[in-house]
Amino acid sequence: MSTPPLTRPPRQIAPTLANLVAGQPVHSPETFASISPSTGEVLAQVPVSTPEQIDAAVAAARAAQPAWAALPDAERAAVLNRVADLLKEHAALLADWIAREQGKPLGGVGPDQVPGARFEVWACEGWTRATAALSLGTEVVFEDETRRDELQRLPHGVIAAIAPWNWPLMIAIWQIVPALRTGNTVVIKPSEYTPAGTLEMVRLISAALPPGVLNTVSGAGPVGARLAAHPQVDKVLFTGSGPTGERIAAQAATRLMPVTLELGGNDAAIVLPDADPDTIAPGLFWGAFLNMGQTCACIKRLYVPDSLHDALVERLRALAEALPMGDPLAEGTAMGPVQNRMQLDKIGRLLRLAREAGATVVCGGEPQPGPGLFHPLTIVTGLKDGDALVDEEQFGPVLPVIRYRDGDLDGVVASANRLDLGLGASVWGRDAATLRAVAERLEAGTVWINQHGRVHPMVPFGGHKRSGSGVEFGLEGLRSLTRTRVISLCK
């Protein structure tokens, strides 16, 4: 569906934002612009943190950490529930920032309400409350007539968090809140593509936090690199590209510092021959195109048996062409722009290579003209393993559908597992035993059955192979943000 022209007037003055260090606003001599992917307008001027300001942010977190860790567990939980209250109170403002800066539409269309900017803020609140309700406590790991051994969980200290641009507030909360829940303090750097909304969120929720418990720095790669390598940082949380994650891991290894890395994926979905195309098409569609495909755990490769291929592709095409794309601030918009030019150019390169390989573009295919970075939802057939659009993570609104021979489960499982990424995968069909058997052969941190990409705050989430290291969410995620200490008592 073509993109209508945007008619809303540009904002008259782009605000100049500040970082938060030790509870105080901090401006920088140099700034950079946060740009709307819908209109190209400047939304805000954002500080480029200086090396001295990065040092000050880490020092503030270090100074605040002992008192924060010393609070009774119930008090820290209560503070985080006040953070959730502030997220709810300012939901409209934060959703507006997400829609304008990231490009995610405010709301959805249809009975299911496509997850958009309002959903992202709601998820921030919900994840905060769910995490506040968890507690690790002391565990008796062994006891007999001679001894008693207790396992305690202690905070690492100062956490450096580096957040991505695709879910800029929600993933920031995924990093911030579990770290604070376990007694750590945080310095977070938002993506340079979506910094303003995250800085505003931190400014708002800091009203519930002691000064220095949560601090921000902003800027491009050098700022993140200095933060991640800082000698007073005790652990790094990073969500982003594989090459950057590898550099962070290599630097951390020189200090034996722990890291949690979520580095994306190239998730495969396998449709079994007994599946019903009408039933599974909506789930596959949103598994692939949620947030314009700009989600690490989206379906990036769809394997379909010969007998269902044409029917399923037709149903996916109809869904893709029916959804309105346009101004993310307009009610009823289902799809917004690609977030940044770098990503739009990558999509264009992969589509060009697909055409050169003989692929068929079933729908979409070319970006819309104009200042906005709008690209129609695109479905591509006629590709095979080894083609660039199959092997590379496109991270955008393009889905390759790959045929396989009915009954060749060994072959399609091998195709799904052949890459060096393993964040998520899914299998779709009717027979429960076959679904489970295929799921247990897939090499991924999460394997969904008849669904894809549905994460939950109580369920651990992390990748295999080069999709990352460590897990987030639930009790396992909390444990990853602590060090162990055993108190062993001789009776």
Automatic annotation (TrEMBL):
Gene3D superfamilies noted in UniProt: Aldehyde Dehydrogenase, Chain A, domain 1, Aldehyde Dehydrogenase, Chain A, domain 2
Domain of life (superkingdom): Bacteria
Pfam families associated with the record: Aldedh
Catalytic-site annotation from UniProt: E262
One Gene Ontology molecular-function label: oxidoreductase activity, acting on the aldehyde or oxo group of donors, NAD or NADP as acceptor
Keywords: Oxidoreductase
Residues in Aldehyde dehydrogenase domain copies: 30-486
InterPro entries assigned: Ald_DH/histidinol_DH, Ald_DH_C, Ald_DH_CS_CYS, Ald_DH_CS_GLU, Ald_DH_N, Aldehyde_DH_dom, LUC3-like
Family: Belongs to the aldehyde dehydrogenase family.
Protein name: NAD-dependent aldehyde dehydrogenase
Organism: Sphaerotilus natans subsp. natans DSM 6575
Lineage: Bacteria, Pseudomonadati, Pseudomonadota, Betaproteobacteria, Burkholderiales
